[in-house]
Amino acid sequence: MGIRTIEQIELKGKRVFIRVDFNVPQDEKHHITDDTRILLSLPTIRFVSENGGKAILASHLGRPKGKKDPKFSLAPVAERLSQLLERKVVFATDCIGEDVQKQIGGMEEGGVLLLENLRFYSEEEKNEESFSKALASLCDVYVNDAFGTAHRAHASTEGMTRFVKIVAAGFLMMKEVESLERALINPQNPYVAILGGAKVSDKIGVIQNLLNKVTTLLIGGGMAYTFLKAEGFQIGKSLVEEDQVEFSLNLIEKAKGKVKFLLPSDHIAAEQMDIQAKRGIVKNDQIPSSWVCLDIGPETVKIFSEEIQSAKTIVWNGPMGVFEMEPFSQGTFGIAKAIANSSAFSIVGGGDSVAAVNKAGVAEKINHISTGGGASLEFLEGKKLPGIEALRRE
Ligand code: AMP
């Protein structure tokens, strides 16, 4: 695919710029509340360091909007990284400039340095050439291991690669690209895509692209109600995007004879979105006009699970219901378990479905859990991601 991995390049003695994703959640005291993203980047950092490269790490954190704001400093990340690596991590208080150059100049082979937040400069997101050149001047080799930002053409993900001779993908990036490509290029059939979440409008591109690839399309979550309305059902107070009803109807027509297109047949409906509210299981033609459907029902879980069981390739994006509330979580967890029990090659993407897989305790049984919600959606839409294209060289 024209992308080199870090295993294929000479690292010894080289200044290796690694674009990582250290955009970690923190509490108000700047304590890191979830270090998954740091943990996931360790194999690449260790590999560079163990092979004698000088690892220069760069990331964004939050939205400082081009201003140096201590609230968004990466200093706490340097500390946590140092604990995890069990070695010193030098923290640079800037990400470009003479002082940084000096610090890098003083690095030993195998050393690790973390640059300050890239988004302290508005030029990062604007992908400005002068900023890209300033970043490129810090290194001999460029490595991208931040799949989550690969759908953005920023200076650190795209711009600077034009000024660095040797570019490569880190282990995390490689796994994302290989797994997602497996779902798009010659996937094994039966191929089942399960799409859920709040809105049809967010998933139009994915539905359209996957319609040409999959054998079965299962729709759940809030977006299912726009489709059910298009089919003529009375959906009560369930979530609906009126402006997508016609599109949904066209899509159902397009799917006919091409793929198996399944909508939920029953639901967990409630008087309102509240765990205390009166609720019950209803079929499509029984939805009370003043009630709201908040999860797929047990019959739907069974039907969807049967499709999942016979699949060889599975892609899942978006929860089947309001899984954050226990009474409306069984549909999403049921699907998570069905995917975990299947022998298919499975990919789960999107923050909410990833959270559901973790909450259901089945994460280890999924072949690939994508770290980038937006990036994996765009990949599945068939779009070219600037951060990945920038790594392709003859
Ligand atoms: P998305 O970000 O598009 O993947 O949507 C995820 C959100 O959709 C979650 O917060 C769910 O609570 C919500 N959701 C899923 N099913 C429903 C539903 N039937 N009604 C309302 N919201 C839903």
Characterization of this structure:
It is built from 14 helices and 15 strands. It has 394 residues and is α/β, with parallel strands linked by helices. The chain has two domains: 6-174, Rossmann fold, CATH 3.40.50.1260; 187-380, Phosphoglycerate kinase, N-terminal domain (Rossmann fold). A six-stranded parallel β-sheet has the order 3-4-2-1-5-6. Strands 9-8-7-13-14-15 form a six-stranded parallel β-sheet, sandwiched between helices. The longest helix has 15 residues, at 36-50. The protein starts with 14 loop residues before the first strand and ends in a 5-residue tail after the last helix.
Write a concise synopsis of the structure shown.
The protein has 14 helices and 15 strands. It is an alpha/beta fold.
Secondary structure tally: strands? 15
Residue stretches low in confidence (pLDDT < 50, at least 5 long) are none
- If classified by CATH, what would the architecture of the largest domain be? 3-Layer(aba) Sandwich
Q: Determine the fraction of residues in helical runs and give it as a percent range.
A: 25-40%
> For the residues shown, what is the average pLDDT?
95
CA radius of gyration is 23 Å
| Count of runs of 4 or more consecutive helical residues | 14
Number of separate structural domains: 2
By CATH reckoning, the class of the largest domain would read Alpha Beta
Helix vs. strand class: alpha/beta
- What general form does the structure show? elongated
Quaternary: single chain
CATH topology label of the largest domain = Rossmann fold
Strand content: 15-25%
Q: End-to-end distance, in Å?
A: 9 Å
- CATH superfamily placement of the largest domain: Phosphoglycerate kinase, N-terminal domain
| Distinct small molecules | adenosine monophosphate
